[in-house]
Amino acid sequence: MDFPSSLTIRYWGVRGSVPCPLHAQDIKNKEIALIQKIIANGGTEKLFGSNPDPEAIKTYLEQLPISMSGTYGGDTTCIEIQAPNSPLIIIDAGTGLRALGRMLLGRLLSGQNLNPLNTTEHAQLDLHLFFTHYHWDHIQGFPFFAPAFVPGKRKVTVHFYGKRDARVELSEVLRGQQQSPNFPVVWDDMPCEKEYLELKRLNPQALKLGELTVQYQELTHPDFVFAYRFECNGKAFVCATDTEHKDTTDPRLMKLAENADVLYYDSQYMPEEYRGAAGTLTGAMTKFDWGHSTYEWAIRSALAAKVKTVVLGHHEPLRDDFQLEQLYERARNFAQTQLSLPENKGKELQVLIAYQGMEHHL
Ligand SMILES: [Zn+2]
Ligand SMILES: [Zn+2]
Question: Which domain holds residue 139?
């Protein structure tokens, strides 16, 4: 790696609520759009010649919208964070954790450090897994996390973080989802070492993990949720998934996200879906109190907290890749409108939409 990052962030799952693999019709819709695009660009002969080089095709595909060339992904929340000389950080164990686990297994079995940016001997086999909350889409990947099954000398230690004073203890939440008859391997038979740290909900204290500082804050969601801020060498990433804004920016998030480089924010609904307007994708039912938010509040929050980049995530499972791009276009237009308001004079904001495999190097 030739980029001297303070923080490397990789998204392994950005879907909300429930995993949603692509269906055959989704693939067909992509194929139709791609073929139409190739024809509009002059056809394959003009684009690639009579003996196409796979690299040239790859380059062509990479500049197309993701709706035609790939997918935003159907795995639920999982984000990997690497910081120099710190243990590897994971936010949430949604189904994205399965693919992250396979990659980490490769690092583990080839004798590498789990965090490539950690050049110290310390915490090479340690993983720190921060749960935002315990809803299914944020925990269900853990039973399929391959590194947790490695015994012996390359056994990993997983440090689990979650909220204190929840209705069920963190260890019981994880143990519970693997109880017979729900899963064939019970919790205590997974060879990894397990450490639990429940974080108090009031007066949260910052944690120091190697060169990384972790701060958190409880936000609005059914059963409550933690948002986290990870900071190293003056670079900050804030994850605020599964949170709802009603009619004002949340002062707790404003404090946590102030001047952050990147804010990942719950943008599950279009504004009219949140209101429950008739004829929308998610049905004529208000989403008030369901615990999720919109791109409008993502952008308003990012501007109010003077964030540099806001990333729209926790995508609605009903929304296909083409519809996600419509949401993204509306979000960018909304950001332009907001930036022209007097209170945002002089501010800048980059708006991105999350996809599986997306990375930041801060
Ligand atoms: Zn969720
Ligand atoms: Zn939730």
Answer: 8-21+72-361
